[in-house]
Design brief:
This protein has 439 residues and is of the alpha/beta class. It has four domains: 130 residues, Rossmann fold; 63 residues; 163 residues, 3-Layer(aba) Sandwich (Rossmann fold); 52 residues, Alpha-Beta Plaits (2-Layer Sandwich), CATH 3.30.70. The chain is built from 14 helices and 15 strands. The strands form four sheets. The chain has a six-stranded mixed β-sheet, with helices on both faces. It has a four-stranded parallel β-sheet with strand order 4-3-5-6, sandwiched between helices. Helix 2 links the parallel strand 3 and strand 4. Helix 2 packs parallel to helix 5 and helix 6 packs antiparallel against helix 7. The longest helix has 41 residues.
Length: 439
């Protein structure tokens, strides 16, 4: 465990991580960072997801401790009795780090560290660490740095306390306090700078979005729990080469590719994955990225079909809740159950019965992708408008444009021109109004 200059705990990858096979316990004890996962949770919840987050940053999980309560303790997160139990459990499993399954307040963190004698990190700190290690683009790095600074601002403390009494006298502030104030001022200045730079990025995105909207192509956003297979799916559907890895939050930057269905072009966007209790700092920092989700004509919710029923339902609810939080809850929805190649036929049929309106696919093998294309076409039919046109032979450019926008069209050559019946994006129908056949 390392500490930053402002006193916040910082996760550092531990070599080897934590596996689950034979010898895992011994390897966990040799790992540099060994975490005891604790949670003040409601009935039915667990800390398994926190364990996966920790393993993603290379921290070994050596124990779990859960207290059932409606709300975390305001001072110590866990109740006093559970804190003593956690101290004993940490000693027993040789943990050198406590990880809490919620975002805790600076007071809760400070009191827990004093009571347990170990550094404490919360769920938000772990997620921010993952985002920091996976951010690849300049925009992604700006977004993560902003989220980290806003999270850490209230937690700057402690390292200068040995200087606080040097000033002396009533009302005199010591250099320790001055240093903390300086750190906070520098952090606020950096936050303001990052927000200005992200506003510029947001403006650039708005220009790009305006260009796409001018083309008026139907848009589909892939949303879902992190590691549900969204990037693999966009690659399978479009032939793209979006980076894929079996780890949480591998994709942070949205990738938009063209998907042709029935000869008609659509825009398909791969978005950042969601998770339970997604930190509000990240939702705010990634607002420009999440704008793609809010504006999509159709949200394709990708669900990991290989997850157990209870965990799968929890993931589905987490995505639905996050969509509500970012004001995308009212967008049209299509449920896609992915990874059916990992299941036997009986389990696939169970999923089909449990999600009767869903499309079951395997992005890895291509199974079900043709049905998925057909369902997307049906779901987006409301964005199209039927046209009956008579286009003069001299307007060949308009005919070519119709072919590009409508894909498959019905055409008939007549003495006056080409009689065309086609479905085109409603926003572009006005372009062809002068060719409309009056009946």
């Amino acid at each position: 465990m390392q500490r930053s200059r402002n006193g916040r705990s910082a996760l550092t990858p531990a070599p080897g991580g934590a596996g689950r096979g034979a010898g895992d316990s011994q390897r966990s004890r040799r790992a540099r960072q060994r975490a005891l996962c604790v949670g003040a949770l409601r009935e039915g919840d667990d800390v398994a997801e926190l364990g996966e987050l920790l393993r993603t940053v290379g921290v070994a999980v050596v124990g779990e401790l859960v207290q059932r309560r409606a709300h975390p303790h305001p001072d110590t997160y866990l109740g006093p009795g559970k804190v003593r139990e956690a101290k004993a459990a940490a000693e027993e499993c040789d943990a050198n780090l406590i990880a809490c399954d919620d975002e805790i307040t600076p007071r809760q963190e400070r009191n827990l560290e004093q009571a347990l004698g170990l550094p404490v990190v919360d769920r938000t700190a772990v997620i921010l660490d993952i985002f920091a290690s996976h951010a690849g683009s300049a925009e992604g790095k700006l977004q993560v740095e902003l989220a980290q600074l806003e999270y850490n601002l209230a937690r700057m403390r402690g390292l200068w306390s040995h200087l606080e009494r040097l000033g002396g006298g009533i009302g005199t502030r010591g250099p320790g306090e001055t240093q903390i104030e300086t750190d906070r001022r520098l952090a606020r200045n950096r936050i303001a700078t990052l927000k200005r730079r992200l506003e510029h990025v947001k403006g650039t995105r708005a220009v790009q979005r305006a260009e796409r909207e001018r083309a008026a192509l139907p848009t589909v956003a892939l949303v879902g729990y992190t590691n549900a297979g969204k990037s693999t799916l966009i690659n399978a559907l479009t032939g793209a080469e979006v980076g894929v890895a079996d780890r949480l939050f591998h994709t942070l930057d949205p990738a938009t590719r063209t998907l042709r269905i029935g000869g008609r072009p659509h825009l398909l966007t791969d978005t950042v994955g969601f998770i339970s209790k997604l930190p509000h700092e990240l939702v705010d920092a990634f607002s420009a990225t999440l704008e793609e989700t809010r504006r999509a004509d159709l949200l394709a919710h990708v669900l990991d079909g290989s997850a157990p029923d209870e965990h799968g339902e929890r993931m589905r609810r987490a995505v639905e809740q996050t969509l509500e939080e970012i004001d995308a809850g009212a967008r049209p929805r299509l449920l896609i159950v992915n990874k059916i190649d990992l299941l036997d036929r009986e389990r696939v049929e169970e999923l089909r019965l449990h999600h009767p309106r869903a499309v079951l696919v395997s992005a890895a093998t291509g199974e079900g992708l043709e049905e998925l294309r057909e369902r997307i076409e049906v779901e987006l039919r409301h964005t199209l408008r039927p046209l009956d046109l008579l286009v003069p032979y001299a307007d060949g450019r308009r005919l070519a444009e119709l072919h590009e926008l409508a894909g498959e069209i019905s055409r008939q050559d007549t003495p006056e021109g080409v009689r065309v019946r086609a479905l085109v994006p409603a926003a572009l129908a006005e372009r062809f109004s002068r060719f409309a056949v009056v009946t």
